[in-house]
Specification:
Low-confidence stretches: none
Helix content: 25-40%
Organism: Ruegeria halocynthiae
CATH class of the largest domain: Alpha Beta
CATH superfamily of the largest domain: Gcn5-related N-acetyltransferase (GNAT)
Mean pLDDT: 94
Order of helices and strands: EEEEEHEEHEHEHHEEEHEHE
Shape: globular
InterPro entries: Acyl_CoA_acyltransferase
Protein name: N-acetyltransferase domain-containing protein
Structural class: alpha+beta
Oligomer: single chain
Length: about 280
C-alpha cells in the first residue's frame, strides 16, 4: 500500500494513494485523521490534497484507511452512548473539517440496537437448503480462511470494494481470537459441506469484562435467505447466553440487512457518513 503520513503539532493524516475505485475510477483515501482544531485539520488536509494531485489522482475518499477492510466512516449523528467494540470514532468537529475542504457525502451507514428477547420472537421460514452450525472453537486459522474466502465473493460487488490478501486479512483478525465466543461465530453450510453464508458476532467488550450486549459485526451469504437465518440464530444464541441486547453494527443504508434490522424492531442509535471529493470535478 502506497502511503505517506503527515503530522503537525495538532493534526495527523495518512494518504493512501492506491485506494479503491470510485465509480470505476481509481481514488486515493485519507485515513488515520485527527485534529485538535479546525484550522490544524484544514492545514493538513491541504497537504494531503497536494500529495494526491502530484500523484495524478483526482478523487479522494475519506475517512478510510486504504480500503473498507480497515477503519473508515465518520460518526455523523449519535444518541451519546459509548462507542462499541471495533466502532469508528472521531471528534465532533472533524467531519466539518472535511466538508469545509470540499468533501461531500457519498455513502451512509448506521448502527442499531435491539432487545434480544424481542428479536427472537419471529423466526424466518424453515429451509432445507442449508444447515446452520456454530464454530467448534478449533483451528482459528482455518476459520478465518473460510471467512476470508466467502467475504471476497460476497462483498466483491460492494461500492468501494478493494481486495486484500489472505495474509493481510489474517493479520487483522487472528489477534482478536482470545476474545471470541465460538457460539457467536455461525456458518450456513449446504448439504455438500460448502459455505452458503457466515456470521461473525462478538461480545461488546467495550462495556467491560461482562458485557450485556453482543455485536452482530458482519454477515454475508451466497444464498437468498441465509443471512436472515444466521441473524435469527445469532439473536437466539446470544439471548440464551445471557446477553440482553444486540448491536447491528455499521450497516449500509441501502443494504437488505437494513430492512431486516428495522423489521426486527432495532432502533438506530448512531449514523455514519463516508465523504469524497473530485479534485477536478
Amino acid at each position: 500500500m502506497i502511503t505517506e503520513t503527515f503530522r503537525t503539532a495538532d493534526a495527523k493524516l495518512t494518504v493512501f494513494l492506491n485506494g479503491p475505485n470510485w465509480d470505476g475510477i481509481p481514488a486515493a483515501t485519507f485515513g488515520n485523521f485527527s485534529c485538535k482544531s479546525s484550522e490544524a485539520g484544514a492545514e493538513i488536509l491541504q497537504k494531503g490534497m497536494e500529495k494526491v494531485r502530484s500523484a495524478g489522482i483526482d478523487r479522494i475518499i475519506g475517512p478510510m484507511s486504504g480500503d473498507t477492510w480497515h477503519s473508515y466512516r465518520f460518526v455523523s449523528d449519535s444518541d451519546g452512548s459509548d462507542p462499541f467494540m471495533m466502532e469508528p470514532t472521531n471528534k465532533p468537529h472533524e467531519p466539518d473539517v472535511f466538508r469545509a475542504a470540499g468533501f461531500a457525502e457519498i455513502s451512509r451507514y448506521f448502527s442499531a440496537r435491539v432487545a434480544l428477547q424481542a428479536a427472537t420472537a419471529s423466526a424466518p421460514p424453515e429451509t432445507d437448503g442449508y444447515v446452520l452450525e456454530a464454530w467448534d472453537g478449533s483451528d482459528p486459522e482455518a476459520l478465518f480462511r473460510q471467512v476470508f474466502a466467502l467475504s471476497t465473493r460476497a462483498f466483491s460487488n460492494n461500492a468501494f470494494y478493494k481486495p486484500i490478501s489472505e495474509a493481510d486479512f489474517m493479520a487483522m483478525y487472528l489477534p482478536i481470537v482470545p476474545m471470541l465466543k465460538r457460539e457467536l461465530i455461525l456458518f450456513a453450510r449446504r448439504h455438500d459441506g460448502t459455505l452458503a453464508g457466515f456470521l461473525f458476532g462478538i461480545p461488546n467488550y467495550a462495556e467491560g469484562p461482562n458485557p450485556t450486549s453482543a455485536i452482530l459485526k458482519t454477515y454475508a451469504s451466497l444464498e437468498p435467505g441465509a443471512g436472515r437465518h444466521l441473524a435469527h440464530k445469532f439473536h437466539k444464541t446470544a439471548f440464551g447466553m445471557g446477553f440482553e441486547n444486540a448491536i447491528h453494527a455499521l450497516i449500509h443504508d441501502d443494504n437488505t440487512s437494513a430492512d431486516r434490522s428495522a423489521a426486527e424492531g432495532a432502533t438506530i442509535f448512531r449514523r455514519y457518513t463516508l465523504l469524497g471529493q473530485k479534485l477536478n470535478g
